[in-house]
UniProtKB/TrEMBL annotation:
PANTHER family: LYSOPHOSPHOLIPASE-LIKE PROTEIN 1, LYSOPHOSPHOLIPASE-RELATED. GO terms for molecular function: hydrolase activity. Keywords: Hydrolase. Belongs to the AB hydrolase superfamily. AB hydrolase 2 family. This is Alpha/beta hydrolase. Residues 18-196 form the Phospholipase/carboxylesterase/thioesterase domain. It comes from the Bacteria. The keyword Cell inner membrane does not apply.
Length: 215
């Protein structure tokens, strides 16, 4: 599978982490790169795939999941392909952060809850699982202890607060260490606080990984 990707940040051979950055509907990897410029310095390599037509699936994530097929499954496979390529480049599961905004955050939420895998951490900006039925809580403790930053806006026009909170609850039940914050407002935006929280997470997780390798 050929997946167009944009990369930036620390050189691959110097980065402590890889960040798989997944854009929203109507956006492209350049949006994620521009957002990442609002983060503080961190030893990470960003890798951002591009959705065909800049859309990962056609309808709202609040619709029944089957109504977004086959695009939904195709997009999930795209992310799995990206993770496989990162592993080939030396970024194993413990060195990969999943970061998404809007539709990208929804897609990543769906990935970790329905196709669970061990990752270093999660950054979910304004999104939640896809469909009308909550997926079962992932088993096998693959998300146990995984730090997750979830951020959203109280009256976001596309993503209701309750879906973000429900997704956070599922992640907690799966064992993730969830940091959830929903700020007041009505716009579909990423706040400066969210960017700062992501940077803190990147640096904390990177330092843990560096310490393990040094030991």
């Amino acid at each position: 599978m050929t997946v167009p990707m944009l990369e930036w940040g620390a050189a691959a051979d110097q980065a402590e982490l890889a960040v798989l950055a997944v854009h929203g509907r109507g956006q492209d990897p350049g949006f994620m790169r521009d957002t990442a410029r609002r983060f503080g310095p961190a030893p990470v390599r960003f890798v951002a795939p591009e959705a065909e037509g800049n859309t990962w699936y056609p309808l709202s994530f609040l619709e029944p999941a089957e109504r977004n097929q086959p695009a939904l499954d195709r997009s999930l496979r795209t992310l799995e392909t990206c993770l496989g390529r990162l592993a080939e480049r030396g970024f194993d599961a413990g060195r990969v952060v999943l970061w998404g905004f809007s539709q990208g955050a929804c897609l990543l939420s769906q990935l970790v809850l329905t196709r669970p895998r061990r990752v270093a951490s999660l950054v979910i900006f304004t999104g939640g699982y896809v469909g009308t039925e909550a997926p079962p809580v992932p088993g096998d403790a693959v998300l146990h202890g995984v730090p997750a930053v979830l951020r959203s806006i109280e009256h976001d026009p596309w993503v209701p607060r309750h879906r973000v909170e429900d997704t956070a609850a599922l992640l907690r039940r799966a064992g993730a260490e969830v940091d959830l914050r929903i700020d007041p407002g009505t716009e579909h935006v990423i706040t400066d606080e969210a960017c700062a929280a992501a940077t803190r997470l990147f640096t904390t997780v990177a330092s843990r990984g560096a310490g393990r390798r040094a030991g």
